[in-house]
Amino acid sequence: MWPYPRIVAHRGGGKLAPENTLAGFRTGLARGFRAVEFDVMLARDGVPVVMHDPFLGRTVNGRGNVYDYDAAELTRMDAGSWFGADFTQETVPLYTEVVAFCKANGIWMNVELKPAPGYEAETGRVVGELTRALFGPEIAQDDVRLLPLFSSFQPAALETAREAAPDIPHGLLLKETIPDWETLARSLGAAAIHHNHVTLDPATAAAIKQAGFGLFCYTVNEPQRARELLAWGVDGFCTDRLDLIGPDFA
Ligand code: G3P
Ligand code: MG
């Protein structure tokens, strides 16, 4: 049900490096992480980039929306200065660059489809098609551990990703438990539920497991809470605190 690593570095390097940058991915790797979560959305020209916010200003120097710029423009923008003077060379990475880095270093990927509003279906389709092309040899090996896992809060993105890349598994992200979570997850063909740990309770955790889904939590930054969730049967979680919760955390 969860054949992947249990502890996953959130947005590349968690809070130890600028999020969703190659410096972040290198930081996670240096800390021994072999599993990472990151966010993907489309630039104006339809090229997927690794970015959390649909707007510039918080982590990337600039103004406006991500979809106001082509990918080539975004990949020249400063995505590290907000974090610290050591990271002024960091830029917005392309999805393909991050996949190449992770594949080269044996890092498993939880690819969160993070569409800008109105681009849900297109984002799932484009990222699905590209991922299917990038992972053709791995798909042929029929070992799900070699493949990324898509996740999204947006069912429309998961639907089109599934159509475009039926072999790539996906998880439904939930900020809180919704009454029809099981029906929705089944209709999407989801392999897992990715639940906000703050709104999860032990009975719901048990029900999700009982229903046969993997159960992943975000974003768990306190070791004591992490132990509690694992005791509830949570299969894995992502963390920002790579310094407190290492890849072999138990
Ligand atoms: O995928 C888990 C987590 O990343 C979801 O929330 O806002 O950090 O992307 P967010
Ligand atoms: Mg995310």
Automatic annotation (TrEMBL):
Keyword Transmembrane helix tagged: no
EC class of the enzyme, as a word: hydrolase
Domain GP-PDE as annotated: residue spans: 5-249
Signal peptide start-end: none
One Pfam family linked to the record: GDPD
InterPro entries per UniProt: GP_PDE_dom (IPR030395), PLC-like_Pdiesterase_TIM-brl (IPR017946)
Matching PROSITE patterns: GP_PDE (PS51704), PIPLC_X_DOMAIN (PS50007)
Record-given protein name: Glycerophosphodiester phosphodiesterase
GO biological process: lipid metabolic process
UniProt organism field: Zemynaea arenosa
Known EC number: 3.1.4.46
GO molecular function terms noted in the UniProt entry: glycerophosphodiester phosphodiesterase activity
Top-level division of the source organism's lineage: Bacteria
Gene this protein is translated from: ugpQ
Alphabetical list of Gene3D superfamilies matching this protein: Phosphatidylinositol (PI) phosphodiesterase
UniProt keyword list: Hydrolase
